[in-house]
Every structure is written in structure tokens, then in C-alpha cells.
Predict the structure.
Amino acid sequence: MAVLDVLSPEIKSQLVLELTQLVSDDVVPRILAQQEIDFFKAKEAANYLNVSYDSFKRIRKQGLVTGFLLKGTSIRRYRKSELDEYLKESEERL
């Protein structure tokens, strides 16, 4: 016999409410904080690279970072891995 089988419907309902609250208050924020951001908008990418937005546009125009277009749109995103590679190559050039 499972533990939940002996509980009244009211207790089960209260348990579900409390578990839901615990998950939304504690577990979900921890999981989201652990998730790594994989894609950036242009201004976010500039911030990640610690350069001005204008400098980032020059980097992009030089083809040093290309990003990709979201399918069926003209919206461009930049992969964290591509930005990390640019940073690594920039350090090697110094």
C-alpha cells in the first residue's frame, strides 16, 4: 500500500499545493540559475565580450563573429561557443 493511499483527499490536496509551492519557490529558480545561456542577442553578445555595441558591430562586419538567423526570420543570434572562440582567438593574437 502506498503512503498516499491512506491520506484523505483534503490532505493529498494540501500536500500537492505545498509541494508545488516548494518547487516553484526553490527548485525551479535553482535549475534556471544552473542553466547556461547558449544564445545571445547582439547587445547581449557585446556585453558578454565586454565591448561596446559599436565595436561588436565592427567585429561582426569583419566576419570575426557571424551568428545565425532564426529560421524564417531576419533575427540574428550569437552562440556562446562562437563568442568564446572569438575571445580565445583574440587572446592568442595579443
Remarks:
- The longest strand covers residues 76-79.
